[in-house]
Amino acid sequence: MKKIRWSDLSLVSKIMIEVGVLAVLLFSINMLFYARINNSMQEMDDVYASNAQITELGQVFDDVQDSMYQYLKVKSSQALMDYYQNEAKYRQELEKLNERNIDDSVKLLEKKIRKMSESYLSCTAGTVAAKRGRNVEKYKQEYDKSLELYSYIQSSMDELNKQLFKENSQTYAALRAVMRYLEISNMVIMLMVVICGMVLLIIATREMFLPLTNMAETAQLVGQGNFNVKMPPADSRDELGTVTRAFNTMVDNLGLYIARTKAGMEKEQQMIERELLMETHLKEAQLKYLQSQINPHFLFNSLNAGVQLAMMEDAEKTSIFVEKMADFFRYNVKKGEEDATLEEELEAVDNYIYILNVRFAGDIHFSKKVECDVENVRVPSMILQPVVENAVNHGIRNIDWEGHIDLSVERWNDHIEISVRDNGLGMTGEQIERVLSKKVHSSSGEGDSTGIGMNNVISRLELYYERDGLMEIYSEGEGMGTEVVINIPLERSEKNVQNPDC
Question: Cα–Cα distance between 95 and 92 in angstroms, integer?
Fold first, then answer.
């Protein structure tokens, strides 16, 4: 059988053996001193237990006197309850005192205090009872007797406490000397054990210090970017030899790895920047494309209506009509590449309704209700007019009853709710789903349309606020009308803008 040498053991085994021996030695010494100190502490606790008992007795005794006096002074139920509680507690403490005849001055004094206390409690009970019975003369007599006994008992307790302290002083001095001796002995022995253990540990592990020191210095150089340094070659079979060889291999490959990683990170960063730039350009292009779709046929038809109106009426109404037309298209051209305020959007809707009523002889019945503190909130341009246009063309255009369109704008805590309701043809659930999923494609060639359909509005809302589900559509079915609700988040809009006229 091959003999195992100390140098053949692994570093973990060496350290565990050395630390284990040292720990067992320290634990054994600590347990020995702990047992001796614990015994001394128990003796000291016994020495002062009697003084603590007398101190507690005196405190409860004072509480009885104070609670009785408080009841005589204010005669409240709380004071009476406190007195009874303190009296019961004091009787419990008296049970701990000696009541036998023992040839010991301390025990005899305890018996005396106990007898006087029983008389005192009898006087206090009589005082309280006389006070409750409103017998002034009796409760004064009983109170004077209890006050006199209180003074005697208090003096006796002080005397008992002094005698106990005098008897315990000698015992305490002896115990204190023992504790001091144990403390010094423990410190000396522990110090010797620690020093011996450290010396043995250093001697046993001295072969680890030099390789670890060299490795730390080399690792520091590598950490500073110098990959041309190496550890001295090692042929040992323990962990230090394995780590040394692995460290040298790591240093050889670390420079090449870092260079490749740096090149890869630079390339990846360039790709991320290109993707972000492309995404930004794509969003800008989508916004510009979606906002640029206005059917020129609508402009031509509207202008033809203006010409016909000029021929049929005087120039004043024609002037108003042309002015509304100019405002409408000027707003569309001006806001084609930027956002707008709700006030501007509502004005565009008013102009659009005016133009339609001129063309269709006032058949469009439109009402508007807007809270006064929302006009300055910024939104994507041209989102309300297409919704109103959709209500006209697909809601009330071909109905047999009088059509109405109601627009309302309400402000809530975290959003603004815009509602466009009509009493027209209504929609089925399937039609609503197709509109909200942007599967309905309106033709830009419709003669009476601006060309900005619901798909356009939904897409621009999603791009502007970077979230989905901002538009909702409600309808109870065919012939029951339709309501389109747009929820404008206030975290991006001017949340704190208030109209000074509100």
Answer: 5
